[in-house]
Design brief:
The structure is a homodimer. Chain A is of the alpha/beta class. Chain A is built from 9 helices and 12 strands. In chain A, the strands form 3 sheets. A 5-stranded mixed beta sheet of chain A has the order 3-2-1-4-7. A 5-stranded mixed beta sheet of chain A has the order 10-9-8-11-12, with helices on both faces. The longest helix of chain A has 25 residues. Chain A is globular. The interface between A and B is large, with 56 and 56 residues.
């Protein structure tokens, strides 16, 4: 009904597509979701866009966040083996019949842009995002610019090593941060006592010795990985997002203790560690922001 | 005598200051060096600049590379504990009485700019530099831009971890890449049999078992560190410089073998590993280039 000026941010996940309609200032006007499983997910994404356009009128611009490595021209996801058949190489500008080009970003890259725009790193220029979930992903902004890299892989922080002599992870990194911290490896790390980090953290909080020991080790490993990233990227702030970050202070407090021990603090400079602020909407916010920037819209 | 248009690049090291006079196209016109030890090193740097100016006329611009963390306004080194007394906070534009501002860069950052301009990464946009010497330093260019970070620390690749349970290094990183590879730790790593990596590599090449084992381990650790950096920064090329890189193929060949095992190569993309091309002049080249860029000179 409304004809209010707005931008659409789409975040395509393995199970759902989330869409936000935002003012150019970042205020949420409307949201939609739809399942993204099954072979007709592309039609359902189109349906979400059509539904919002019917309610709100046509958007100024559209941006897309999706898993995988984005092509350097930002028109598609160039590489995403396995999930979401048809995503690789799909030209979103053509598919959505958008009058203006639709930029496509890696989902973690988009989440970082979202957090800098409207989340827990507002106004920052040197930011890392670590998403701690089943696996471990991330993104980097340095000197005010999101890092892409040669094949769009920058920020794959799950695949830094914590143990050069360790077992290879899914992309051959020995003893990786993802394998040390990600939920997927918790059964192995706990002798099959835990399958879910939330339960582990709850039991650790109750003083259960095995849980406390595993959680301490997890936090120590995360801190060691953060220290590598601090010395390599020199951020002002590191945001932690994803399901494991829902532990909140049960994560942030022991993490601060580890960083007191491990972090290089030249001239007293200390990196701020904070929980990401936009939850699972960060990617949609960031996709929208990228579309506004790409097409030169003024951001109030 | 000549009045040929030129730019000066100064690289201040712990023992020597090197100065290059270059055309804006990067051709070397003249070079000077002077010792930088002792309390009067600042006067001697000024003397080098004066000597070149007398021979060549005044330079268009001057750039400086120096150890430590450069201030974000690029006018000084903000943090450099220990060596070169008086370097911290010295305003080079004022000290050299240069009519145009003199940018000051961290020496590894400058070396990377030099290598991209006139060295082994010419024309590349996604480049990491690792300097392998007594310690291990580095710098990163991503998407065509040199990374500085919040306090100018970006690229301190010596201080990423290879062993989260290891002993802390000089800035508290546990089991660091610097401690695994840098020449400074070779006595410890070899049970005091070696103090110098060149000798280690020579003996390894002769089939001496202890030397071969230590060198293999060193190369494996370097490869693991590189893999972390590849997945975090996504470079097209990694340059290796510094004394240890003088091993040439004795380093690059086994390193390639380790990377075949450890590197993530999405869609077959493989990072090129190469020896840096400008030796100990890279910093002076890069400092000159930064000064040209800062003042908007056309680079042929």
């Amino acid at each position: 009904m409304s004809a209010r000026e707005h931008v659409l941010g789409l975040d395509l996940g393995g199970t759902r597509v989330k869409a936000l309609a935002l003012t150019p200032g970042g205020e949420v006007i409307a949201r939609e979701t739809a399942p993204s499983e099954g072979s007709d997910w592309q039609e359902r994404v189109k349906g979400v866009v059509a539904a919002l356009s019917e309610r709100l009128g046509p958007p100024l611009v559209i941006g897309v966040a999706a898993p995988g490595l984005a092509a350097s021209d930002e028109r598609s996801i160039a590489s995403m083996p396995g999930r979401l058949p048809g995503l690789e190489g799909l030209d979103w500008s053509a598919w959505l019949e958008a009058p203006r080009g639709v930029p496509v970003l890696n989902d973690a890259h988009a989440a970082l842009l979202g957090e800098v725009w409207q989340g827990a790193a507002r106004g920052e220029r040197d930011v890392l995002l670590l998403t701690l979930g089943t696996g471990l992903g991330g993104a980097a902004m340095v000197d005010g610019r999101l890092l892409r890299g040669r094949v769009g892989r920058a920020g794959h922080f799950g695949h830094i090593t914590l143990d050069a002599a360790g077992a290879p992870d899914i992309v051959n990194t020995p003893g990786s941060l993802e394998d040390a911290v990600g939920n997927h490896s918790l059964p192995r790390r706990s002798g099959n006592r835990y399958t879910d980090t939330a339960t582990l953290v709850r039991d650790a909080g109750r003083g259960e010795p095995l849980a406390a020991a595993i959680w301490s080790r997890t936090v120590r490993d995360l801190a060691a990985g953060m220290v590598s990233l601090i010395n390599a990227f020199d951020p002002a702030v590191i945001l932690v997002g994803g399901g494991i970050a829902e532990a909140g202070d049960a994560l942030l407090r022991p993490l601060a203790g580890e960083l007191d021990r491990l972090e290089w603090r030249p001239a007293g400079h200390r990196v701020r560690i904070a929980k990401a602020g936009l939850g699972d909407l960060a990617g949609a916010f960031g996709a929208a922001r990228r579309a506004l920037d790409l097409h030169g819209f003024h951001i109030p």
